[in-house]
Specification:
By secondary structure, this protein is of the alpha/beta class. The chain folds into 2 domains: about 190 residues, Rossmann fold, CATH 3.40.50.720; about 230 residues, Dihydrodipicolinate Reductase, domain 2 (2-Layer Sandwich), CATH 3.30.360. About 40% of the residues lie in helices and about 25% in strands. The protein is built from 15 helices and 16 strands. The longest helix has 20 residues.
Length: about 425
């Protein structure tokens, strides 16, 4: 999968001319790049701002951030929501990060905030050109916010999932292909790359697994297991972003990681053994929003071999976070510890005469820092950390929609901190008949 994206980014010389120049600018720091972040909510302030702030201070980039309210209004709302939820740590973090951003705005010549409800701000924003655009808004408006930047930017990065509406995403992909077919003259070609930060976490595995011959050690892949479980509930200040439920929010990460080894286009409803969903009590999202989902199905790998897939995603589950991806072979396994507060390693377990032997092989990243470093360091063409092809992004969205469209009204609820097995035992089973 990654090889296909690298090929697209490196082989089409005419289409890549602007992107190659941008990467050269980033590598050499010969010219300041203009970065636009569309959205100033949780994703921007927690995941992007700490890294980008350093780059702005180093005069490596001009940063424009845009949202639909004044930054002071937006900051107050997020901090108040954290206060109402009793999340003292989150409130402190939000207050610090937004405070730093507002402080830097007052004296920073390379930092600008745009209130999209202000006519003058909007007029300026609609006529500027950017080198790099990050789409950091809720997924129901990803495509709407990305479209205006086609032809006005070199590289657009869209956080997972590609969009919430499959048809809209497919039409957007067709627009991109049409743009490439008619490129020429003074019209710049915009690269659009969907991105998943869990995929970025295991980038070392994705890029090195073949050269390191890992499957020669563990044998043919027969099963993949996963868990992305968070003990904390759905946060009030993220309720709108999580309105589509954990299948869109967390299972989309899983599908991005599965796509390294499995052909997502092989997904069919008759390959599903069981999918069950539930919802934690007092959830701030709509009543049909699931906060827990368990999966048992199978897919084909890229060689046409059947591989079983089983795992759970959810929030408000258990007493501690649990995040992992296991690739089980015939005589060993590769285990990716996805929790940043745990070992932060990819381990390989091999069968030996005395049992299983375990050794670390790759470091697990945090996701966003490695992704931003690859882009702003000018290495993204050769190493597209966390990047997905448009086709894979569409396949992920298709699977998400096919599953979530089966969720019934009035799904079972569970108390916060309930054990995952106890939740699964009482969860509502989806019907695919």
């Amino acid at each position: 999968m990654k090889q296909k994206l690298v090929y697209q980014l490196t082989e089409d010389v005419q289409r890549n001319a602007d992107l190659s120049r941008l990467m050269l600018m980033c590598r050499t720091e010969a010219q300041m790049v203009h970065v636009v972040c569309v959205g100033a909510g949780d994703a921007f302030i927690n995941r992007y701002w700490p890294y980008l702030r350093t780059e702005v201070a180093r005069n490596r980039m001009k940063l424009t951030v845009a949202d639909v309210k004044t930054i002071e209004q937006l900051a107050r709302e997020r901090i108040e929501q954290a206060t109402q939820s009793g999340e003292k740590k989150a409130r402190k973090t939000l207050r610090t990060l937004y405070g730093d951003f507002i402080h830097d705005l007052q004296g920073g010549v390379n930092l600008k905030y745009v209130n999209l409800e202000d006519e003058n701000d909007r007029n300026w924003y609609d006529h500027i050109r950017a080198d790099i655009v990050f789409i950091l808004v809720p997924d129901d408006i990803h495509i709407n916010k990305a479209k205006p930047w086609l032809g006005r930017s070199t590289l657009i990065l869209i956080e997972k999932p590609y969009n919430r509406d499959l048809r809209q995403a497919q039409e957007f992909e067709n627009d991109l292909k049409s743009m490439v077919a008619h490129m020429g003259g003074d019209l710049p070609v915009t690269w659009v790359c969907p991105f998943d930060h869990y995929l970025a976490k295991i980038f070392q595995y994705e890029m090195k697994k073949t050269q390191d011959r890992l499957f020669e050690e563990i044998g043919t892949l027969i099963r993949m297991e996963f868990g992305i479980l968070e003990s904390g509930p759905v946060e009030l200040w993220r309720a709108h972003s999580l309105e589509a439920g954990m299948i869109y929010d967390l299972f989309s990460h899983v599908l991005a990681m599965l796509s390294i080894e499995l052909n997502l286009s092989s997904f069919r409803s008759d390959q599903i053994r069981e999918i069950k969903v539930a919802r934690h009590k007092n959830c701030p999202t709509s009543v049909d929003c699931e906060t827990f989902a368990s999966f048992d199905f199978w897919l084909f790998d890229y060689h046409g071999r059947r591989v079983d897939v089983k795992g759970i995603v959810g929030k408000g589950v258990g007493n501690r976070d649990e995040k992992f991806l296991n690739l089980v072979g015939e005589h060993g396994l590769i285990s990716c510890d996805l929790g940043t507060k745990r070992s932060g390693q990819t381990w390989i377990y091999k069968e030996k005469s005395g049992g299983k032997v375990k050794r670390p092989i790759y470091r697990i990243g945090k996701g966003h820092p490695e992704f931003l470093e690859a882009i702003l360091g000018g290495t993204y063409i050769e190493q597209p950390v966390g990047g997905l092809t448009g086709d894979i992004a569409i396949e992920i969205l298709s699977i998400l929609g096919a599953i979530r469209g089966r969720i019934p009204h009035g799904i079972n609820e569970y108390d916060l901190k309930t054990d995952k097995h106890a939740i699964a035992a009482r969860a509502s089973k989806l019907s695919f008949s």
